[in-house]
Amino acid sequence: MSVHVQIQCCSLLLWWLYPVLGSVRAPDYHLDNVLSIIEELEGLAPALTILDVATGLGGLRTSDQDYRHLLLGDGSAPPASLPPLSEDQLSFMRDVMNHRASPPAERGVVLTPDGTTIALANLMAGIEAGLRRKKDCSWPDVAGDAPIDNLYALTLAKDLGLAIVAHHSNSSQVLLGPNGCWDNVISPQVFTGLGPLSLATDAVMNGGMDGFILGHLLTQFQGPPLPKLSAVLRDYYGETQGQIGLKANARRKNFQSKVDLNSFTNQVISAVYLYDYIRNDSILQHLNDSILRRISEQGVKQFHHHYLECPAIIPRCLWAARPYKGSPVMLALPLHFVYIHHTYVPSQPCTTFRHCAANMRSMQRFHQDVRQWDDIGYNFVAGSDGYIYEGRGWFWQGAHTKGQNSRGYGVSFIGNYTTELPDQAAMELVKETFMRCAVANNRIVSDYAVQGHRQHRPTLCPGERLFNEIKTWEAFREVEQANGTTGEL
Known about the structure:
Layout: H1 9-12, H2 31-44, H3 50-58, H4 65-72, H5 87-96, E1 100-102, E2 105-107, E3 109-111, E4 117-119, H6 120-131, H7 150-168, E5 180-182, E6 191-193, H8 202-219, H9 229-237, H10 251-258, H11 261-279, H12 289-309, E7 313-314, E8 335-342, H13 353-370, E9 380-382, E10 388-390, E11 408-413, H14 424-440, E12 444-452, H15 464-470, H16 479-486
Parallel strand pairs: 7-10, 8-11, 8-12, 9-11
Antiparallel strand pairs: 1-2, 3-4, 5-6, 9-10
Helix pairs in contact: 2-9, 3-6, 6-7, 6-8, 7-8, 7-11, 7-12, 8-10, 10-12, 11-12
């Protein structure tokens, strides 16, 4: 049985070719621009369903269409009733629907309103797969230990599996990541990786997790009528809580709640076998079944640690940090302490990427220009938008707790917490996820101590209410206790 699908690309895209919509000049690679185009399509043809639009966008992909059609079925060709795009819009949408790496740049990705970057093709594939969900795809001639779930296969399993194989064969320096930097977060045009690019970059994994989460939601959606695609995406990536009850800033937590690692590993293996069979290019020619299972189990564990056990950290470049003044002092890792602060000023919690990024720039200006420090003082800063922001980071000594800066990380919550507590999710992100990740990555010792700024300086920081809260944390230590345990002070 042949699994090759003959794709008539020209006929699939005829409906995009007649320029009737307004031209888009030098488009920004921001999700808002994508959503504006989708809304135009939906406005011109109100009868279009979410599946119609997702399928039309899927038809713009120039690679892996045989894999996509096999997993989605005959209905995955774009419907002829869709309105056309202008040449500029068509060029833009083709660009963002085709992920590729041209080191150091990564294409086919867009910046979202919450400050993260996604591969749009993985997102759209998940939405389409959720609406055409098939959990038990199998073919007699294709190896694999489990039937393929098309939602896994089209969002994450294939890309992660190919990244695992490439890393094992030394054709990729790294297995996962990296994140990257946009040339301009206001008008993003070029996205550059922060290190060697794998086949499973952060943008691909973010887009895949989002596609899986939204596809899973749509699988269970009781309709008709189904919501419009633009409405679902604006709800999910928007700054306020919407109708669907899911937000992009919680993607890691939401994905983890829906996925069993053993099942995910089986899906990764099966997706690689299927892809290898369709392509017939022998990517597995030097791997037997036991080796593929072993490296897949290891790779999925690394994925779990990197994306599910560790927090998403917004890098300096994305909040538009100034350069460090002078030469940073490197920390001697692992450290023994984490010192908790509140910013006091800014006094209000930040709940959006734009607000939190502006707060970070404001604090850095104050620390550099007024206090004459080399950089923002904190190593990390927790917003109330679901993210931790990189200050001086894991390796540079901070300026946060005088006399202790070489001994521990300074982690601050944006806001004044004299009488109120930070957002519960922000506290859990620091208390649980950040600390667990820091221990696992040998940034802090396993018996680390948490202390408040006021325990070392004559200050009210981190605020009376927050200090009383951290005193209940298991890792909290009085200064005398810390002295007896580590001899550090």
